[in-house]
């Protein structure tokens, strides 16, 4: 005689590693939070922002990283902040940047577990910026 024991535990939906957080709608804003174009003036303060969402069913520590590179791929600004978001929480963090010269720049936005654990929670997103 064979006895089979079955468990009626609810199925869990695993989230792919780079989908633990969603990063969308990267854009620039002025200091009041109003969207602005990707063509900015030298010495104009802009906010580099994106919408981030915790796609997991538990709280998640994270670090929001923005690096700005010039057209020679040189990093001219690297800024981050740490946070924690609850399951399903969505918000739009912003990092301030002021271009001090004309040129074409790219802002790269990353969401990692931490600076000491660079395990990406999402794919990076990019914003091309022209300063004149």
User: What is the terminal separation in angstroms?
Assistant: 82 Å
The main sheet comes to: 5 strands, antiparallel
DSSP summary: helix tally: 0
| Helix-strand pattern | EEEEEEEEEE
What's the β-strand tally?
10
Rg is: 19 Å
Give the helix/strand class. mainly beta
Broad shape = elongated
Beta-strand share of residues? over 45%
Instruction: List segments where confidence is low: pLDDT < 50 over at least 5 consecutive residues.
Output: 4-12
Helical content (DSSP H or I, runs of 4+)? under 10%
Report the mean per-residue pLDDT as an integer. Answer: 89
Description:
This protein is mainly β. It is built from no helices and 10 strands. The strands form 2 sheets. Strands 1, 2, 4, 7 and 8 form a 5-stranded antiparallel beta sheet that branches. The termini are far apart. Mean pLDDT is 89; it is low at 4-12.
Short description:
With 132 residues, this protein is mostly beta strands. Helix content is 0%, strand content 50%.
């Amino acid at each position: 005689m064979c006895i089979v024991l079955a468990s009626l535990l609810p199925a869990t939906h695993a989230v792919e590693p780079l989908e633990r957080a969603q990063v969308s709608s990267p854009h620039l804003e002025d200091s009041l939070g109003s969207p602005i174009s990707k063509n900015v003036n030298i010495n104009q303060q802009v906010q580099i922002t994106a919408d981030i969402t915790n796609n997991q069913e538990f709280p998640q520590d994270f670090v929001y990283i923005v690096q700005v590179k010039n057209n020679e791929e040189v990093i001219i600004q690297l800024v981050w902040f740490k946070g924690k978001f609850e399951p399903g929480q969505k918000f739009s963090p912003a990092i301030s940047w002021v271009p001090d010269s004309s040129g074409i720049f790219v802002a790269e936005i990353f969401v990692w577990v931490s600076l000491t654990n660079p395990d990406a929670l999402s794919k990076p997103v990019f914003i091309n910026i022209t300063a004149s």
